[in-house]
TrEMBL record:
<comment type="similarity">
    <text>Belongs to the UPF0749 family.</text>
</comment>
<keyword id="KW-0694">RNA-binding</keyword>
<keyword id="KW-0175">Coiled coil</keyword>
<feature type="coiled-coil region">
    <location>
        <begin position="50"/>
        <end position="84"/>
    </location>
</feature>
<protein>
    <recommendedName>
        <fullName>DUF881 domain-containing protein</fullName>
    </recommendedName>
</protein>
<dbReference type="Pfam" id="PF05949">
    <property type="entry name" value="DUF881"/>
</dbReference>
<dbReference type="InterPro" id="IPR010273">
    <property type="entry name" value="DUF881"/>
</dbReference>
<dbReference type="GO" id="GO:0003723">
    <property type="term" value="F:RNA binding"/>
</dbReference>
């Protein structure tokens, strides 16, 4: 068979073109493989970094929880100390008040003890006048019932106070006061008054001893500090 020049050239061109296509495909495939390798390595690095970051975040979160627990315990200790200091200050103020070192003002009651208005001629007059025992009963009942401060005829009563009966007068801490004796107490009237009026209590005992008793609720009582 005869092969002309055109067929030879065409065959050669096809051969070269096929070679070029094959070479181009192989080159492209290798490039894609290299890109895939780089992509895989980059993805791997990113995943590793994310895992490390999450692990670090967990460590930091646990550390934060531990520090928060320490802070909470410290705050509790501070709160306890503050409450302790508050209680101490409050106790000191109460002691100063009970000792008569500070001025006191508040609601309360006023109890007036007076000698009997009538004394039978055949009776002993001493059985119809107010004695220190009568005053003691009222003062003790008021203190037991929660009074913050007590005074007799304006004379503030403290832990060192003494009351002595001297005939028709009563001496309170060296100061003499005649009847009637006005005992004032700062406290809750709704507690103090029922404690005095209880059946068989202080008021009934005083009335039985022929003492005139008057109990009055006061909206405001002011007591000055004791002058030493």
């Amino acid at each position: 068979m005869k092969v002309n020049g055109k067929h030879v050239v065409l065959s050669f061109v096809c051969l070269v073109l096929g070679f070029m296509i094959s070479f181009s495909y192989q080159l492209t495939q290798k490039e894609e493989d290299r890109i895939s390798d780089r992509q895989w390595e980059r993805d791997h690095n990113i995943r590793t970094m994310i895992i490390n970051t999450e692990e670090r975040n967990r460590e930091l979160q646990n550390e934060l929880f531990e520090k928060q627990e320490i802070v909470r315990q410290i705050e509790e200790e501070i709160a306890k100390e503050e409450q302790l200091f508050f209680n101490l200050v409050e106790d000191v103020e109460k002691l100063r008040m009970y000792n008569g070192n500070v001025k006191v003002k508040g609601t309360g009651v006023e109890v007036t003890l007076a000698d009997a208005s009538y004394v039978p001629s055949e009776e002993n007059v001493n059985n119809y006048i107010v004695h220190e025992s009568h005053v003691f009963r009222v003062v003790n009942e008021l203190l037991i019932s929660g009074s913050d401060a007590v005074a007799i005829n304006g004379q503030r009563i403290t832990k060192n106070s003494y009351i002595v009966c001297n005939g028709p007068v009563i001496t309170v801490d060296g100061n003499q006061y005649p009847a009637p004796f006005v005992i004032t107490a700062i406290g809750e009237p709704e507690v103090l008054i029922p404690s005095l009026n209880i059946v068989g209590g202080v008021k009934d005992q005083l009335v039985f001893d022929n003492i005139t008793v008057k109990i009055t609720q006061k909206e405001e009582i002011l007591m000055e500090p004791v002058i030493h």
